[in-house]
């Protein structure tokens, strides 16, 4: 019986783990003052480990007893020191970034988002057919962001300074879902997200021969017509079933399907304009796009770039709502072979929940060990084990203090749920260790 553990399940477990810090007492326990050496049955299998050749922990029933014996000290972890994190990818010019694809298996395990040097995090919506990114995205607007290199990005959030200090490493960055307005652009993006909005149609094959296009400035227009530039085709009906889009000037933003075209007069007939075009109206006559779906509605799109007869880009004129599946086809333009793929956004829309969209199936705990921690943490010696222990006892009752010495916790109490071996870390009274533990679900 084939089955999978879904990414939703992984994120759900990560959520529950973070929530557990409010109902359980979680401690960071450090241990093992002596060097790694010799075979130690029960906690690793390496025969000749050393402080420069660290062994790998094994999960045996005797290992927790050994770890308790090696205990040096323990510190309570606050819920405010725990965060979802995602794998860090820095934006670098000249790199081809993977674009979001709703058909991709294990989407959250793909590198389809970046962080810039401004700590802005963006999801790649389109990489323009596999081109290199050369223009860093900078906008924090709520819509899809187009950069001059033809990439399309979705701003997700900015890592705030307090979180940079606690959770940003060379490999990880924090991510969260906002439940209230914190005054950041992330809240605006979350609130603007539209469930099932069709925000991008990918050109997976540009086809050939789409040369029956025209761009220019109109000579004039009427209630149901537009007179194209004098350089437009002299062939009757060549633009029939194509769209004319007013890109600037009077009537900017309107798009209509051409139903008749007279080559001698350059007059194209359309349905009634909201604002009639005139001699200031800059237009684009391009192949038309038909979108079909069994669910969503109101999305419309246009071809916005044809180079050498190849369709390179499609732009949305209305993103619609509630799309779960869709197909798109091209008509007109004289060419053939163009293949379009509407990209369906995640549940509730791009930007609604960065945590689930970008792969928050990892959790980081950040614990700072400051000097002697009030006298309970030994200094002048090394530690080599970092252990997460849940609900240990102290003096026969649940441990609740902020810190404990190595003998402060009851032997063999609590549940050791994470074990990590490290090279020796020496502690001094004027020293602070910033311990970051990352757990994958």
**Rounded radius of gyration (Å):** 30 Å
| Oligomer designation | single chain
Approximate strand percentage: 35-45%
The CATH architecture term of the largest domain is: Sandwich
Count of separate structural domains: 3
Average pLDDT works out at 94
Class from helix and strand fractions: mainly beta
CATH topology of the largest domain: baseplate structural protein gp8, domain 1
**In CATH's first tier, which class of the largest domain applies?**
Mainly Beta
Q: Compute the separation of the termini in Å.
A: 23 Å
* Main beta-sheet strand count, sense and barrel state: 5 strands, antiparallel
Morphology call:
elongated
Number of helices: 5
Can you walk through the features of this model?
A hairpin with a 5-residue loop joins strand 6 (144-146) and strand 7 (152-158). With 441 residues, the protein is mainly β. It has five helices and 29 strands. The chain has a five-stranded antiparallel β-sheet. Strands 8-3-23-29 form a four-stranded antiparallel β-sheet, sandwiched between helices. It folds into three domains: 7-80 and 363-440, Sandwich (baseplate structural protein gp8, domain 1); 89-168 and 176-196 and 348-358, no CATH class; 201-343, no CATH class. The model has no long low-confidence stretch (mean pLDDT 94). It has helices at residues 7-19, 63-69, 161-167, 185-192, 354-358, and strands at residues 26-31, 71-76, 82-87, 113-115, 120-126, 144-146, 152-158, 172-174, 200-208, 214-217, 220-222, 225-227, 243-248, 255-257, 260-262, 267-269, 282-286, 288-292, 300-307, 310-318, 327-331, 336-343, 362-370, 382-390, 393-394, 397-398, 403-405, 415-426, 432-440. 9% of the residues lie in helices and 37% in strands.
